[in-house]
Amino acid sequence: MKALALFSGGLDSLLAIKLIQEAGVEVEAVNFIQPFLSPEDEKRLVAHLQKLVSQLGVKLHIVRLGEDYLRMLENPKHGYGKAANPCLDCHIFFLRKAGEMMKDLDAAFLVTGEVVGQRPKSQYRGAFPKIDEETGLAGLIVRPLSAGLLPPTIPEEKGWISLSHCPSIQGRQRKIQLELAKKYGLEYQAPAGGCLLTNVEYGRKVKDLLKAEGRLTVDHLRLLRIGRHFRLSPEFKGIIGRNQRENQVLFRYFYQHRREEGLYLVKALGAPGPLTVGFGRPAAEDLNLLARLTLRYSDHAPDQSVTVKILTGGKKHQSTKLIVVKNQNTPDPDRYRIA
Length: 339
What we know:
Layout: E1 2-6, H1 11-22, E2 26-33, H2 39-53, E3 59-64, H3 67-74, H4 87-105, E4 109-111, H5 127-135, E5 141-142, H6 154-157, H7 175-184, H8 200-213, H9 218-223, E6 228-233, E7 236-240, H10 244-256, E8 263-268, E9 275-280, H11 284-296, E10 304-312, E11 319-326
Parallel strand pairs: 1-2, 1-4, 2-3, 4-5
Antiparallel strand pairs: 6-7, 7-9, 8-9, 8-10, 10-11
């Protein structure tokens, strides 16, 4: 008998796997990686997850989410939370994906580390039947951490497993989980930062991108983690780097996409300062405004006339220069800031 466990990297999912192993079931695990991470961050995350799950001798499958996930994120059936987090839709999406993997892995049921009442959007008692129904996996999702509080699942009813050794955890308290971790000698540390979609500032940028473009892409979602973001008009925005690393990321993005229309690279010459990338269809005053905002964050002295160079993407790949003065008339960035 084999089960497939959804593995977030947190203590609850580790314990869920251990409890099912104690029921005599072979377990494999799957982690769904959202398309926000840079390749470097993703590599670190995968190594961290592998280290955690190796404590249990479990094979870990890594699934990188793509276009179908982005389409769900654009218009979640159950809506967003406080940011751009469609928690219930996300969870249903992951379970469906895991359900599609069951046949190939010869898994009889799914396992999650969900706890009754732990999360208001996706882990309250009334949400579980809704989740099970929408995934098409009713009766095949086992939640061992709250087993004593939930109706028997198909694996229990058919005598495949017994969950009599499992706890009946509910709410956000962690006492029982910590005791179990000590009992099993498990080391645990959740991936840093949690889900980006629950971050209010990141969510604001996601919603701005959706409003302006109507569609999400992996490249643009990754850029939302970089720099200061400004909406200068309904059809034009700019991202200004905050440090050398972010400048390098923005330059690399511009270089890789330099043949695309609607892309601009802005730099104030003559002193250290940020690189800025503009996106969209700007009016002349939008480019001037972006140049002035870029200059505001540079090391140029006040009241100095500065040459700002603008490279335009596309087949023509034009270069233009503006003369801008850094003074008290520089626009207030908070007027245009997205986050």
